[in-house]
Design goal:
There is one protein chain. This protein has 594 residues and is of the alpha+beta class. The chain is 50% helix and 18% strand. The longest helix is centred in the N-terminal third of the chain and has 51 residues. Bound molecules: adenosine-5'-diphosphate (ADP). Adenosine-5'-diphosphate binds next to helix 14 and helix 16.
């Protein structure tokens, strides 16, 4: 009920006022009663002192006086002012000194007076003037002897005056209390406005912050402690927001990293249930990995190592494994995270298929190079050996023949080495293109002219058809001529004598040009088409070698066209033979273009 500060404040103020008023009231009532009582006894003492004339006259009877009590009564009547006699609250009584019976008095009603302590003292001859705070009256009894007769003057006050005064006081106090309570309500209202309202606002603000809403700033209204608290709260909320923002950014960064990283990551809790995975992991493992689904550690990696062994991986801190899955070579790293609490296991999956492929290719390449160089070397060696062994015995024609073979084999070796050097320059990025603008049609014409002799030697028909108005293009003229030469000389080589070779070129839209070299030669079987741009790849090794090929021509052509951001490909045609198409940008290679 009194949970709100406002109510507590009201309660405290009410209790304060009530207790204050009670204490003040009790003190006042007590003081008034005490004062009244003191006054009563000092009045009595003043009048009935032994040495006063009045007291003396009281005891001095005229000779032969018979009505002593009445005389005393009349004398007392003259002293009513001094004695404070007022008939209703304070009266005097003249009593018989030996029996205590009533003789006369100020009260009309001769009441039966109760035998009080003071009265019995007076009847015994002593002055009875002891006060009794608890008694509902005040009294004084004085024994008097007049004309040889014993009397007792008894003054009794029924405390009516003091009771009236006290009840008035109590009424006043109650009124003050009511007034005080009204003030307390008002004060607590004002206090709640100045003190509790800002606290309530702070509470609302704290609730909003707790709910994650940092947008509202609390207004600092005062410079007191609450103002300082509000300002501190604002800066705390701001700091909290910044920290949360930072954490959020960090989390987003990690989330994005996690989502887009090329390595697969799968996390399990300590019971082996999946708690996190990224798309790369799903792709590598070839299955979807829903969180909270059926898939757990045991199903995915149970064959590699039991979960307990990964949670306690020993000195190294992690386990390594490799696995072939869905045509991929995977390397796995299994490690516990948050070791002390054994929160779970993280599995990082690295796809090394490409690496393995590259390694294979590298090995194959080295084997090819060795093979390609060894063949001419063996030939040179054997012919040279024959010449040395039979020096002077061989007919000059045979000798010349042998020497020619040695020459052509060494040329072939030089050719291979030259091609390898060109490729290696491309690979290492040391080969810069020498870009210039040149006439595409002119470059084609001169390249075709350079091949005419060779074509004619094989009885081929070599035709050129160029779209009119071919533009100048930007590129490395020498290198692009090398590409075209290679393609055309391949057609000459791989087309049986008397064949037809057509070179055509045109424009693609506004920004590209194309060149096609089509022959009606032996063509390339379907299964080899995808590989002819690979280094040392030849469809018919014997035939290629016979015709002086190295198996590197088209791979060099592809490197050059790639550097120009162009395209070189086989065109699918139903007709026999092979058509190679090259596409190039008129503007040449440019940054920002794939
Ligand atoms: P090579 O020096 O052996 O000619 P290339 O890289 O130029 O090497 O060509 C790769 C292979 O592609 C050749 O060995 C040949 O088998 C095949 N090839 C190239 N051009 C043609 C063509 N016009 N007709 C048939 N096969 C071809």
């Amino acid at each position: 009920m009194f949970r709100s500060l406002h109510m507590k404040l009201m309660l405290i103020m009410t209790l304060l006022i009530v207790s204050l008023m009670t204490v003040v009231g009790a003190f006042l009532v007590n003081s008034v009663s005490g004062f009244y009582m003191d006054q009563f006894y000092s009045q009595m003492q003043e009048v009935f002192q032994n040495d006063t004339q009045f007291f003396h006259d009281l005891q001095n009877a005229a000779p032969g006086e018979e009505n002593g009590a009445e005389q005393i009564g009349q004398m007392l009547d003259t002293y009513t002012g001094n004695l404070g006699i007022d008939a209703s609250t304070r009266n005097y009584y003249v009593l018989d000194g030996s029996t205590g019976s009533y003789l006369c008095g100020s009260s009309q009603e001769a009441e039966a007076l109760p035998m009080t302590h003071n009265l019995s003292a007076a009847l015994a001859g002593e002055v009875g003037d002891e006060s009794d705070v608890s008694a509902p009256y005040m009294d004084v009894a004085i024994p008097v002897e007049r004309g040889g007769v014993e009397y007792v003057i008894y003054i009794k006050d029924n405390k009516q005056t003091v009771q009236n005064l006290n009840s008035e006081l109590i009424t006043l106090i109650l009124e003050s209390l009511a007034f005080g309570l009204a003030i307390s309500v008002l004060l607590s209202f004002l206090l709640s406005k100045t003190l509790i309202t800002p606290i309530e606002r702070l509470t609302e603000g704290a609730e909003e912050v707790a709910a994650g809403d940092f947008s509202h700033k609390l207004h600092v209204e005062s410079r007191d402690e609450i103002g300082v608290l509000t300002a501190t709260f604002n800066s705390m909320a701001e700091q909290l927001q910044n920290t949360i923002q930072e954490v959020e950014n960090e989390r987003n960064k990690l989330g994005t990293l996690f989502l887009h990283m090329t390595d697969g990551v799968v996390a399990f809790d300590r019971r082996g249930e999946l708690i996190q995975s990224n798309p790369a992991a799903e792709e590598m493992l070839g299955r979807s990995l829903p969180i909270g689904g059926e898939v757990d550690y045991e199903t995915l990696f149970g064959d590699i190592s039991p979960l307990d062994a990964v949670l306690e991986p020993g000195q190294k801190g992690y386990l390594e494994a490799s696995r072939e899955q869905g045509g991929r070579s995977l390397e796995l790293l299994l490690a516990p995270f948050d070791k002390d609490h054994q929160a779970g296991v993280l599995v990082v999956i690295h796809d090394v298929t490409e690496q393995h492929k590259t390694e294979e290719m590298r090995k194959e390449f080295v084997a090819n190079v060795s093979h390609e160089l060894r063949t001419p070397l063996t030939n040179i060696h054997s012919y040279a050996e024959t010449l040395v062994d039979n020096a002077g015995d061989l007919p000059p024609d045979t000798e010349k023949n042998f020497l020619n073979v040695i020459l052509s084999e060494s040329d072939r070796m030089a050719h291979i080495v030259q091609d390898l050097l060109t490729l290696s320059r491309f690979d290492s990025g040391r080969s810069e293109l020498n870009l210039t603008a040149f006439s595409f049609s002119e470059a084609i014409e001169s390249m075709v002219n350079a091949n005419r002799m060779e074509a004619r030697r094989h009885g081929h028909t070599l035709t050129v058809s160029l779209e009119p108005g071919l533009p100048d293009i930007v590129g490395d003229r020498e290198r692009l001529t090398q590409v075209m030469m290679n393609v055309v000389s391949n057609s000459i080589k791989y087309t049986p004598d008397g064949g037809r070779i057509e070179v055509s070129a045109g424009r693609m839209g506004t920004d590209k040009v194309w060149l096609e070299v089509a022959d009606n030669g032996i063509g390339i079987p379907e299964q080899d088409r995808g590989r002819i741009f690979e280094r040392f790849y030849r469809v018919d090794k014997a035939r290629s070698r016979e015709s002086g090929g190295t198996g590197l021509g088209l791979s060099i052509a592809k490197e050059i066209v790639d550097r120009h951001q162009g395209e070189i490909k086989i065109v699918d045609r139903d007709t026999p033979g092979l058509t190679i198409r090259v596409e190039l940008w008129v503007e040449g290679p440019r940054h920002g273009r794939a």
